[in-house]
Amino acid sequence: MTPEKILADLKKGIVAPCYLLYGEEEYLINDTLQQILDLIIPQADRDFGLFRLDGESADVDNLIECVLTPSLLGSRKVVVLRNATIFHSRENLSELISKIKKYIDDNPSKAARYFLTFLKLAGFSLEDLQGNGWQRISDGQWSKMIPGDSGDDREKWLPRILDICSNSGFTELSGADKIEQLEKIFQNGLPPENCLICTAETVDKRKKIYKIIAEQGIVLQFNAARGEVAQKESLQKEVQKLLDHYGKKLSPTAWVNLGKKTGFELRRSIMEVEKLIFFVGERQVIEDVDIAQVVGKTKEDSIFDLTGALGEKNQLAALQALKALFDQGLHHLMILTMLVREIRFLLQARILVNSGKLPKFNSSMEYGWYQKNIYPLINDLAENFTKREGILTGQHPFVVYNALRNASRFSYQSLLGYLDELLKLDREFKSSAKDPQLLLEHFLIKACAKNQAK
Fold first, then answer.
1. How far are the Cα atoms of 63, 119, 339, 406 from residue 418, in angstroms, in the given order?
2. What is the mean pLDDT of the chain?
3. What are phi and psi of 266, to 5 degrees?
4. 390 vs 205 pLDDT, higher one
5. What is the DSSP pairing of strand 194-200 with strand 77-82?
């Protein structure tokens, strides 16, 4: 079954009692949901005939009441259950952990909601894990409870998500699980004029409730396109539909630069194209200059700005980049991690410079000269080190080039001192209520001071 076939059936008046739209592609799910609603419930009937529930917070009793109660007007009643968790099982625990780690920096609230579902399925409680409680779970116990996840890196994300839940007031999902009662309702059938539409990111197809809905209703899967080519083709198709609707075109260079800004991620790209359409007004073609003016910097852009400004000791640029990252919602611990990484690279570059193994150079050396005279020596040195993420000699040549140029602005002792200060900041973040942005600003002001390097 395809979305096009379902929409064609709806136009003929063929409405299923329940629909499940699931997968990773949130934009396509939301777009299809909206098209279904437009076909089955008129705008004038929605005040009394359309009910929206959040699957991550609504309990099953509330859902049961909604799907069994007929419309007050005697017409069609539609219940939309967004982000449904009723299709999850313990088999989804490792997948939920991946989602928590994926969203913990960019969308902490979403990560917290996944974590609450994780707790419910795993049989943990917030109270059990808070403080140092999570440390009492051994590696063996973790692997046994959560198949497919060794738990090796849980110290990196588990205390952070616990802090987010605590500081943001999230509480555990309440109410006893009444999925069996819900299964019987679906098996017996909903009231004739009632329709349930569920959306979810992940499901366990082995769950009985999934099988019942697949048998009694319609299930549509929306997976993200795999591979860069497929991702671009999927995006082009959806963007073209949007542009055609408004009678607009995107120039070739504008398309390329939009992709650079959004990473060809579907949901964000569509949002940016919608802004561009209204920005250009009556003009038919969206140009490269419009992309530059309208589409904001990505987090990657701002991280590069921050580490670059730190290396160049540019206080104003560093503080502006820091503010941009906080405005974009990047978690302060991720920012701290990037600063630690940059200081370590500068320290390793300083050690290389002090070793006397490299020819003399100055901070204004050209990249071409560096590639010809210095990088071959760096490559030779790299053979003596294990290839690891934190080793400077194993990075891209341009990263090494910038580190060597910028290291001349820092002394060996000052870089060691900055690493100690960042360690103290990490402790303060986890043990005090001080403003993380203010603490990081103080660090950048000190690290970017124009003192003489030795």
1. 54, 38, 10, 15
2. 84
3. -60, -55
4. 205
5. parallel
The range of the structural domain enclosing residue 69 comes to 3-85+176-221
Rounded Cα distance between 41 and 167, Å, is 40
pLDDT tens digit string along 141-198? 787 778 777 777 888 888 888 888 877 666 665 444 577 888 888 888 888 899 999 9
Is 370 a residue whose pLDDT tops 80?
yes
Residue 244, judged by CB atoms within 10 A of its CB (0-12, 13-18, 19+), counts as: exposed
Rounded Cα distance, 285 and 290, in Å: 10
* Cα angle: 231, vertex 237, 239; to 5 degrees: 95
pTM, full prediction: 0.53
Structure-block tokens of residue 410 = 């820092």
CA-based R_g, the chain, Å: 27
Q: Residue 232, by phi and psi: left (phi above 0), alpha (psi -120 to 50) or beta?
A: alpha
Residue ending a domain, choose from 159, 194, 221: 221
User: Residues of 177-207 as b/e, b for ≥16 C-beta within 10 angstroms?
Assistant: eeeeebbebbeeebeebbbbbbbbbbbeeeb
As a whole number of angstroms, the distance between CA 60 and CA 4 comes to 31
User: What is the model's pLDDT at position 451?
Assistant: 63
Q: What is the CATH number of the domain that holds 242?
A: 1.10.8.60
Same domain, 217 and 260: no
Asked if the model's pLDDT at residue 119 lies above 90, the reply is no
The structure tokens listed for 278 are: 């209204």
Beta bridge partners of 380: none
Identify whether the C-beta of residue 276 lies closer than 8 Å to the C-beta of residue 294.
yes
